[in-house]
Amino acid sequence: MAVATAPFALRPVAAQEAGRIVVVGGGFGGGTVARLLAGAGHDVTLVEKNARFSTCPFSNTVLGGLNPMEAITFSLDGIAATGARIVQGEAVGVDGQSLMLASGEALPFDRLVLSPGIDLRFDAISGYDEAAAEIMPHAWKAGPQTELLRSQLEAMPDGGTVAICPPANPFRCPPGPYERASLIAHYLKAEKPNSKILILDAKDGFSKRDLFEEAWATLYPGMIEWVPFSLGGNVTSVDPAAMTITTDFDSYEVDVANIIPPQRAAAIAQAVGVADETGWCPVDGVTFESTLMPGIHVLGDASLAGAMPKSGFSANAQGKVVAAAIDAMLRGEDPQSPKYINTCYSLAGPDYGFTVAGTYEVTGGEIVSIDGTGGTSPLGAGEDVHAAEADYARAWYETVTRQIWG
Q1: How far, CA to CA in Å, does 294 sit from each of 107, 111, 264?
Q2: 282 bridge partner residues
Q3: What's the whole-number mean pLDDT along residues 372-386?
Q4: Smallest Cα–Cα separation from 201: which of 180, 222, 185, 186?
Q5: Is a pLDDT exceeding 70 seen at residue 5?
Q6: Cα(60)–Cα(379) distance, integer angstroms
Q7: Structural domains in the chain, sorted by start
Q8: Whole-angstrom Cα distance, residue 222 to residue 200?
Q9: Angle at 26 between CA 306 and CA 87, to 5 degrees
Q10: Averaged over 173-200, what is the pLDDT?
Q11: Taking residues 69-78, what's their average pLDDT?
């Protein structure tokens, strides 16, 4: 099935109004900004570390055996076809009005857009560093870590225990760890039915909890155990050599450990000075211009976007707003105050989906929820409803990835 989406394009810019825009990050936010501004005739350079972009949305379907990695990995050629220059490299700082790359190249800009995603705080859990992540993968950046975790699940014996350890808020994709538990359970139920999933959580609640727990009881009874913060779920240390995880109250020996540590905005945001003491980047809600560094826009997971969650849908919506705001500024016009939508789909199984949605407006420069809007899928829905929601999730993903990278 298809999901109807309103077309979004900027009107062609006159030569004297065109600006030089450098965008860091070719994902849901940065890819959207680059495509729209280049398509309108602006001089756009997109900097991305990787030749191909693997999406965190739908990476859990790879872990659950529903998709290969190729299904969530995209070329940047579609963005290049709009006229954007693609530079594969690592942004390391800003010198005046130029973005500096690790290669030494300087990219001059009139406006800089940072959509760099997250960095993992390897200092937050004792024993968990980048070396440990090669044994206890986080898989919170899609790519090799996703493949590593999938291979560990395939190698695990029937009857083994998989631990998933989510951090406290805020972090990328709040429902993601629980969708991950669901889709791993789907794989284990079919291939290793005597296995167990243990969720050791640094929180006492999580997004769509009632819907997830209803799905677990229906699809995977007795397979998934959630241990909240108040009952000792908070992970304090790990020992990769012994495959043990220690919490405030207990210690667990497991076969596969998915440790998702706390996060912050990616290193380039820290280096440029757009991140505050929280590790995230405060922005103006209308333009996503940094409140710390004028002329630099920060969007997606790296930003502090008020009530909007850190999700691919949010980043794509923010990308459209940022592109329109920059285009207006370069034309000498005032950006319009936007309204935002976020819809977060979760799959508990191939034919079992549900949704949380929200709408937002800007008040006093802050993004706030609009009262009386949004909500979640109903509890107690029938199989046909959940199957339709799973179709909606796949259709959204197909539509948005085609719009950005197609």
Answers
A1: 18, 9, 21
A2: 304
A3: 95
A4: 180
A5: no
A6: 23
A7: 15-120+263-335 (3.50.50.60), 132-171+181-205+222-258 (3.50.50.60)
A8: 16
A9: 135
A10: 98
A11: 98
For residues 60 and 349, give the distance between their C-alpha atoms in angstroms, rounded to a whole number.
Answer: 11
Enumerate the β-bridge partners of residue 366: 363
Strands (E) across 254-351 are located at 256-259, 263-265, 281-282, 296-298, 303-304, 339-349
| Angstrom distance (rounded) from CA 236 to CA 228 | 14
Residue 258 one-letter amino acid: N
Map residue 261 onto helix, strand or coil: coil
Task: Specify the amino acid at residue 241.
Answer: A
Q: Tokens representing 152?
A: 């560990």
What does the block give as tokens for 283?
């922005």
How many C-beta atoms surround the C-beta of residue 277 within 10 A?
A: 5
Cα distances (angstroms) measured from residue 110 to each of 184, 319, 325: 46, 17, 14
- In degrees rounded to 5, what are phi and psi of residue 240? -60, -35
Q: Would you tell me the crossing angle of helices 383-405 and 312-330 to the nearest 10 degrees?
A: 40
Read off the tokens for 406.
């197609």
User: For residue range 321-355, what is the model confidence (pLDDT) as tens digits?
Assistant: 999 999 999 999 999 999 999 999 999 999 999 99
* Whole-Å CA distances, 24 to 67, 260, 333: 28, 24, 25
Q: Over the stretch 254-282, which tens digit does the pLDDT of each residue have?
A: 999 999 999 999 999 999 999 999 999 99
This model's pTM is above 0.85? yes
* Alpha helices (H) in 220-335, listed in sequence order: 267-272, 312-330
Sign of CA dihedral 77, 83, 89, 94: negative
User: For residue 87, how far is the Cα from the chain centroid?
Assistant: 22
* Mean pLDDT value of segment 42-68: 97
CA distance 35 to 28: 11
Distance of CA 61 to the CA centre of its chain: 15
**Strand locations in 96-207 (E):** 98-101, 106-108, 111-114, 118-120, 161-165, 196-200
- Asked if omega into 170 is within 30° of 0 (cis), the reply is yes
Could you count the other beta carbons within 10 Å of the beta carbon of residue 356?
A: 20
Contact in structure between 132 and 240 (CB atoms under 8 Å): yes
The 3-class secondary structure across 89-122, one letter per residue, is CCEEEEECCEEEECCCCEEECCEEEECCCEEECC
